Amino acid sequence: MKRYNFSTLPSPPPVDPPDPPIIEDQLAPRYQVKVPALYVRSGPGINYRIIRDLHASDIIQALDVSAPKEAWLKIGEDQWCAMAYNGYQFLRKTI
């Protein structure tokens, strides 16, 4: 029977740990509600039904922005809120 000496084999080079995965939500811009109450609607416009409301200082993530005026933020599945109306800003971008 032939014997092998494995202690003389070279060790494989060390492998750097992989970078943590980038989650889309980490890249999404965040906004803080500036008004006492802000409606969340089922679509980007005032004709869509009201689902719930947000309150002052709530932090939300923008998943999408409506075009062309970019006045509505998508914050969830079938959940949109207005960024501004008649020149009044409802949200403030956070870091």
Task: Outline the fold blueprint.
Blueprint: H1 24-27, E1 30-33, E2 37-41, E3 50-55, E4 59-61, E5 64-65, E6 72-76, E7 79-82, E8 84-85, E9 88-89, E10 91-93
Antiparallel strand pairs: 1-4, 1-10, 2-3, 5-6, 6-7, 8-9
Number of strands: 10
Query: Which architecture per CATH?
Result: Roll
What share of the residues does DSSP label as strand, in percent? Answer: 35-45%
Biggest sheet details? 3 strands, antiparallel
Number of helices: 1
CATH class: Mainly Beta
CATH topology: SH3 type barrels
Number of domains: 1
Low-confidence stretches: none
Helix amount = under 10%
Question: What structural class do you assign from the helix and strand content?
Answer: mainly beta
The overall average pLDDT, rounded, is 82
N→C terminal distance: 68 Å
Order of strands in the sheet with the most strands?
A: 4-1-10
**Overall shape:** rod-shaped
Query: How would you spell out the order of helices and strands?
Result: HEEEEEEEEEE
Q: What is the CA-atom radius of gyration, in angstroms?
A: 25 Å
